[in-house]
What does this fold into?
Amino acid sequence: MVSYSHNSIFEPRTAKGRIVRDLLLLAAGAIIFVAVAIFCLVISVAEAAPLSKKGYNPGGGLFLELGTGSTLSTPAPELKTDVKVNVTGNIARVTVAQTFINPAQAWIEGVYVFPISDKGAVDHLVMKIDDQVVEGTVQERQVAKRQYQSAKRVGRQASLVEQERPNIFTISVANIPPKAEISVEITYQEALPMENGTLALRLPQVLTQRYVPGTTQVVGLGGAGWGINTSEVPDAERITPPVRDLSLLPENPLSLQILLDPGMPLAGLKSRYHQVSVQELAPAYYQVKMRKGSVPADRDFVLEWQPEAGDAPKVALFAEEKDGATYLLAMIVPPKSSGAEKEIVMPREVVFIIDASGSMHGESIKEAAEALRYALGKLTPRDSFNIIAFSDQAVSLFGKPKKANETARNEAKRFVDRLTAAGGTELSRALEAALDDTVDSGRLRQIVLLTDGAVGNEAALFRLIRRTIGDSRLFTIGIGSAPNSYFMNRAARFGRGSFTFIGKASEVAERMSKLLAKLSKPVLTDLEARFRDNLVVDILPGTLPDLYSGEPIVFAAKLPKGAKAKGMIDVSGRLLDVNWTKSLDMSSAIQGPGIAKLWAKRKVETLMEGLQDGKDAEQVRIAVVDVAVAHQVTSPYTSLVAVAKNVSRPQGEKMTRQAVPGNPPAGWTPPSGANQQHGSPLQKTQAPNLVPNAPAQLATAPTAQVTVGLRAQGATRAILQVAIGLFALLMALWLWLLRRRIA
It folds into this structure.
């Protein structure tokens, strides 16, 4: 019998043997490390592949390259858009017809993410296939999705319209035959805004790509976009559609026809950004068309008109009876007061926030800088001010606001001249600094935000504004050819301020002068609407906001079932510290269709805001579905779906899902050297947090060129983190066992 010996490679007797042992162990560890690293890399690549497939962007990034040599196995569907608008008074009925054209020899499903007005109540869907017309219905979102998916699987043609944001929708069209087309029409109703007697119709046509903050990847809601779902924007894949490569000419031709019945003679009618032809078909009845027939859909269309002097409406009241209930929409223009022109007695503290992120590159940053220079020139020596520029990080001009003397203003202008647009849109950092509630300057405090609003985390920013606004007021200026009007409008409302848009450099003086005239204080406060005879009415908004010069009072109301539009409504408030009252006779209301849907749109918005107040998410969802389905309008929880009766795609024929790329917004160019691959330049991780409530600790401006925004690494993929963690545990276990063996 051979006795057991302790001699082994782990316990050599000589020094040379021990050196060989250590080298072998080191080599074994290196081999294991390399093997696991290769394994992690394979996992990372494999995980990225579905994103590329899911986004239908073989380049894996923001831009979709088309044409000869494209790596797309099936060409993306082409799109043309035809818009028809009927305007009566201040109510617009808009029909958007989008025709999906299949250029391929294979069956495809087209997916298109597009913008509409954030104030539009989408209520109607029609799918047209040759001579066949299929009407859609509003269903709970998951029900509509299942109905669409079922039709898609069996080969029936179907379309689905889903709301991602109040101003972002997705249309999916299944089973488009080879070399054929399917047209999808959606219709929405909107009450048009009015300011200083001017009414405006804004038709969004293109999306500015949204910035997606967050470092933690989540499953979230799947979509066809290039974005990665994060804990802060769990639906990033659904709001980041691919964009046509900048080297290609813009497509997606847009044609439109507007029939305008303002109800009174007009003193002026103009299109802000497009060349149009105007024909007066009858007295005070106009037809507006594109002069060239069609143009690329690469910027918002804006039409404005002004009634002749003395003819501008002072009161407008509309009513509709539906399902036994009466709905009202009221607009009241308060009287002008000479007191509104009085010089401001109280000194101001103005904090300007300017967006210098990558989405502002090109014309937008020039327009924002010009607007800021204009505002700086209007400050008085009694005012104090500061500037915060932001992209990945926030950079403050001064540690704290300074008096607006000539020296400080000149320094500010040099700061603005050095700004360069690049990086992400970490707006929360700038807002936290500007809305610092520890500041007590004893001044009228105003925040002026200049941005395109290209953010995906609107809800988080709204919560931040509502929580920290304090006694400050927030004014927003939408910059560029396609600003995020939903964010701009809502942020100003939560900030108890006002908003405006600047779409080109030539508008800076006009728009800024009007906005700066409002910065003193609201002219109409403590507003309240009361219905006589103790009538219990669901009025929206529940609390009427303060109004600035030139802004009308607008509210919608639903009377109890069985109640008729009779009696009086008393609207009261303080007009420049003087009591003011206006009474409306409900019996004089103009009957008009769609008022119920406008009320429902506002009701859904109010219910959704409950989520920011901590209300139970499931209860909010149920309440929203009840309102939206009853009034047949879309919402975050309801969708429009239309399904053809007959099966069109033969069994055995495959179908490919393809995203329709949008045009880049007019005037936008990518920052120099920007990475156009997936997750960049518009998706970055957060920079280190700024110290909250301490604006003096913000980075202050250097004397060299200011490039706000540092490149940051993307979020480590969850599965890769798990693999690395398992590898570390296995290595620790192996070393522990090895140590015991040696011992």
